[in-house]
């Protein structure tokens, strides 16, 4: 059946066109490996993936999604994200992709017409949302968020990701976990690789010289913060962290989360349709 959205038809026609030599990006994301337990979870998972594919295809970027264990030697769940990023950095040559963009599965690219300002990242290899002053205090949630990370395909990045991966090995090295628990004041067992990265930056702040903490646009905005004066609209990435719309672990949040997710996805689709209709894309 033909898709009724003119923008989607236009995007599909673009699929397969050669990418720009200046903007070589591979997009990585995840999809839930088993069926969702909420009534709308599987549908929302398909929408978030389609949204990322639309954004990438507009620019002829590759998209790879993870739906299973990519590294049997690493813990399941969020640590597999680190495994997939490491695999991409080790297997994709620089000529094919200068950048790897990881996007969590609970994210929507609301400003789908936005293009990353790669020229502004000279000398930087690791781009994410973060606040160095909170990182140095060992604060996880206020310090940084790895839900959306732009990583330059360099040896420096490979070394950093490989070091992060050692903390997610399976079977679990509980001595490392206990060290992080003791060393990071706001340690949160659900933060996984963020605990390790905060600890690493606390102890080796020089690493931040190769990082750029993006505040010029919304690289990773929590859906509850969209009314904040600090948020630049339209937001590029809206993060539905904590919603658990697939697993339903937080049923009290599902109504609010679903409403905001639909709003954000609809905004992206309307913006895409408008730009195509105007001939701006």
Describe the structure.
Residues 14-21 have low confidence and may be disordered. This protein has 9 helices and 9 strands. It starts with 5 loop residues before the first helix and ends with a helix. The chain is α/β, with parallel strands linked by helices and 281 residues long. α2 (41-58) links the parallel β1 (25-30) and β2.
- How many helices in DSSP terms? 9
- Mind summarizing the main beta sheet? 6 strands, mixed
* The CATH homology group name: Spore Coat Polysaccharide Biosynthesis Protein SpsA, Chain A
CATH architecture: Alpha-Beta Complex
Strand line-up of the largest beta sheet? 2-1-3-6-5-7
Number of strands: 9
Order of helices and strands: HEHEHEEEHHEHHHEEEH
Strand portion: 5-15%
Rg of Cα set: 19 Å
Q: Any idea of the CATH topology? A: Spore Coat Polysaccharide Biosynthesis Protein SpsA, Chain A
* Low-confidence regions: 14-21
Report mean pLDDT, rounded to a whole number: 89
Which class of secondary structure composition applies to the elements? Answer: alpha/beta
Class, according to the CATH hierarchy? Answer: Alpha Beta
Tally of distinct domains = 1
First CA to last CA: what distance? 24 Å
What percent of residues adopt helix (DSSP H or I)?
Answer: 25-40%
CA-based shape? globular
Describe how the helices and strands are arranged.
Layout: H1 6-14, E1 25-30, H2 41-58, E2 62-66, H3 79-91, E3 99-103, E4 107-109, E5 126-130, H4 132-135, H5 140-143, E6 144-152, H6 155-165, H7 174-183, H8 193-203, E7 211-213, E8 221-222, E9 237-239, H9 254-278
Parallel strand pairs: 1-2, 1-3, 5-7, 8-9
Antiparallel strand pairs: 3-6, 4-9, 5-6
